[in-house]
């Protein structure tokens, strides 16, 4: 079966994300509400990058 390029490379849609989030949960089998919530639970706070952080890049 051939998959379309878009389906393999563009990412998930809302339905697929809901399905994945319902499949993973915390220690109490509670489903996560968002991908951000999964990341917050999985990545230690000490190594997370602040989403507001924007490195200073030289002009092109």
Question: What's the SSE blueprint?
Answer:
Layout: H1 5-9, H2 14-23, H3 35-42
Textual characterization of the structure:
The protein is mostly helical and 60 residues long. It has a domain at 5-45. Helices cover 38% and strands 0% of the residues. It has 3 helices and no strands. It is flat, with a radius of gyration of 16 Å. The model has no long low-confidence stretch (mean pLDDT 82).
List keywords for this structure.
about 60 residues; mainly alpha; 3 helices
Shape: flat
DSSP summary: helix tally: 3
Mean pLDDT: 82
The proportion of residues in beta strands is under 5%
Nutshell version of this structure?
With 60 residues, this protein is an all-alpha fold. The protein contains three helices and no strands.
């Amino acid at each position: 079966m051939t998959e379309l390029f878009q389906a393999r490379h563009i990412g998930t849609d809302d339905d697929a994300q809901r399905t994945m989030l319902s499949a993973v949960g915390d220690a109490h089998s509670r489903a996560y509400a968002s991908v951000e919530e999964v990341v917050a639970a999985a990545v230690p706070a000490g190594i997370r990058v602040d989403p507001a952080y924007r490195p200073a890049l030289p002009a092109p």
